[in-house]
Design goal:
10 helices; homodimer; mainly alpha; DNA-binding; 186 residues
Chain lengths: 186, 186
DNA sequence: AATTACAAACCGACTATATGGTATCTAATA
DNA sequence: TATTAGATACCATATAGTCGGTTTGTAATT
């Protein structure tokens, strides 16, 4: 990336570098690209340095998951604040967080979740239970068919976007977004 | 599975055994479980025998993809025949093929696609272009927002089902299915 | 202020092993 | 007899993880 020399001895920054490197490795080369050596190379750190912070590959996977999930949570929280509808507030925010091109790196980072689920099935369980908790939390506003459709469509767009399918074309995405949001006005 | 001795010298059957074994390996152990040794073990064939039929891991991936895709195509074709609506006939069939519990092994096999996409990104491209071709083929009936929503929701259910999320619970799935199909009656 | 003591960050060579792939052989079938 | 299916043994290498060491920051002690 940048060829400015890296400030060492800043563990917080180093960890972020590593997680970002892992994210990009997956995006560029698929899950097989996520080797310790490759991540270390991209983060411009030694393998020893990498393993100092994340003591195994599994630990790295989990850290990456936590990192991405907290990022998503943050985005959702902001969107709920910005648009505090009563009806389906969580599902709408979820949709926008996952699919709205305005959210930063929406088209790259998000897809990494699926890759992580594929390599480490228990992360899928953690995702499922996270979502379950959110559903309980927002039961009053988001426990009905239309909200469910919204979330499912979001997941579909998410997936479609990851594989770069026809439905991820901007025109089609806007089309769908409009259609779904209109459902709430009738 | 069954402990009846395997009839040897039946290459067609052997190939199916191998592909099914690969499918189950992925389902049980994630993409890392898809090693040549593991697949051979499950298919109760030697590694040499396996590599006789599929000369490399990549070839195996592609064969598995083709296998699953042609299965999906078949199911979709049947559903279109059985329910030859004019409006969104493809998208409806797609939805049912992916999500309807009546289609065989819907809850297991389908998720394998995602795993394959994660290990071999060009398979994702092939999927995308397959879908693109279908969209051209069915443009007259399926090129509108509502049909797109149907397909996206199907993908979402697909994904949710793979990770066993809350939206994959039967009650919720039926709920959503009813809701979506009612859209076509108004 | 200088020194000492300790811990945390980081390095890079090394090892063990899992795994993809090859080479060669046997047996069945046509 | 030629070809295909399949088995067995083996090889090469990628890669996860170990380990001993070095550097740098920090805080107490003198």
């Amino acid at each position: 990336m940048s060829d400015t020399p890296i400030k060492r001895r800043q563990p917080k920054i180093m960890r972020k570098r590593i997680l970002d490197a892992a994210t990009e490795a997956i995006i560029d080369e698929g899950v097989d690209g996520l080797t310790l050596d490759e991540v270390a190379r991209r983060a411009e750190v030694s393998k020893g340095g990498l393993l100092h912070h994340y003591s195994s590959k599994q630990v790295l996977h989990e850290a990456l998951f936590d990192y991405l999930l907290s990022d998503l949570e943050e985005t959702i929280a902001e969107l709920i604040d910005a648009n505090p509808h009563t009806l389906a507030r969580f599902s709408l925010a979820y949709f926008d967080a996952v699919c709205n091109p305005n959210t930063p790196d929406y088209d790259k980072k998000r897809g990494v979740f699926f890759a992580l689920f594929a390599v480490q099935p228990e992360l899928a369980e953690r995702w499922a239970s996270w979502l379950q908790d959110r559903m309980v939390e927002h039961a009053a506003t988001d426990d009905h068919a239309m909200a469910r459709v919204l979330r499912l469509a979001a997941d579909g767009l998410w997936a479609s976007n990851m594989i770069d399918g026809p439905d991820s074309e901007p025109a089609n995405r806007e089309d769908v977004t409009l259609f779904l949001k209109n459902l709430f006005r009738s």
